[in-house]
Design brief:
single chain; alpha/beta; Rossmann fold; seven-stranded mixed beta sheet; globular
């Protein structure tokens, strides 16, 4: 899997370029510890997709929906779920069949229910360089 160690500005630029290249349907699993920059990366991806409204963390709402010139974007934050058994209340099956772009933070809460066709992004803090993140992705 490719990886890069990026300062925040370059992470945002990477996310914009990634978003600009995305086409629906797409499922993107975004992993990383608290504060790693998952929501920042989602905001950059949405910017690249042409989302013009404010993109915020759906930590309490669990799901946000955004319009873009290339279709609907669903942004999920599964941090508050215990496990995949709680996905039905979010309309999980409909999201997977909807032909949209789905960006999921904390996908490990949905293990066993994640679609086989997905892209994985992972962010990690760099202890010696707190202003940088290690980004790993599947091609």
């Amino acid at each position: 899997m490719p990886s890069a160690e990026l300062p925040l500005a370059e992470l945002v630029a990477w996310g914009r370029a990634f978003g600009a290249a995305l086409t629906a349907p797409a499922f993107i699993a975004i992993r990383g510890e608290l504060g790693a920059g998952k929501t920042t990366l989602v905001q950059a991806i949405c910017d690249g997709l042409g989302v013009t409204g404010e993109v915020t963390s759906p930590t309490y709402a669990l799901v946000h929906e955004y319009g873009s010139p290339r279709g609907t974007v669903h942004h999920l934050d599964l941090y508050r779920l215990r496990d995949a058994s709680q996905l039905a209340q979010l309309g999980w099956e409909d999201l997977l069949r909807g032909g949209t772009i789905v960006l999921v933070e904390w996908p490990e809460r949905a293990e066993g229910a994640l679609p086989a066709e997905r892209r994985e992004l992972s962010l990690a803090h760099l202890a010696a360089q707190p202003d940088r993140r290690r980004l790993t992705w599947t091609a």
